[in-house]
Amino acid sequence: MLSSIAVAAGGACGALARYFVSQRLNGEIPWGTFCVNIFGSFLLGWYVVNEGREILDSLYAAGFLGALTTFSTLQFEVVTLYKKDKRKVLFYLVLTYTLGLIAAWTGFLAAAKI
């Protein structure tokens, strides 16, 4: 029960953070979603080194980072971008997935050295 509450609390904070960043940065290209996904990938990579505390895993990893970084928002914005400018979609997707993997790996390596 406590883990469920932790996921809900973390999820609410992560969703609000994503919303506010997207409101400030989204324009012709959805840079807000891009930024939260890259930053969230880094944080999740960092967190993997220190996982194993049930409540913190629920609050931070499943809740906050799960809501902050969202695959469904990415896909929605890719389809929307495709409708507006087909040429930018491939650039956006390659940049998002490549930098997301690099950010997650960098976070993991950085946390492992501490």
TrEMBL record:
Na(+) is not transported, but it plays an essential structural role and its presence is essential for fluoride channel function. GO terms for biological process: cellular detoxification of fluoride. GO terms for molecular function: fluoride channel activity; metal ion binding. It is found in: Cell membrane. It comes from the Bacteria. It is a multi-pass membrane protein. Na(+) binds at residues 66, 69. InterPro entries: FluC (IPR003691). It catalyses: fluoride(in) = fluoride(out). The chain crosses the membrane at residues 29-49, 61-82, 89-112. Keywords: Cell membrane, Ion channel, Ion transport, Membrane, Metal-binding, Sodium, Transmembrane, Transmembrane helix, Transport. Its main location: membrane. One of its GO terms (cellular component) is plasma membrane. Fluoride-specific ion channel. Important for reducing fluoride concentration in the cell, thus reducing its toxicity. Belongs to the fluoride channel Fluc/FEX (TC 1.A.43) family. This is Fluoride-specific ion channel FluC. It comes from Fictibacillus arsenicus.
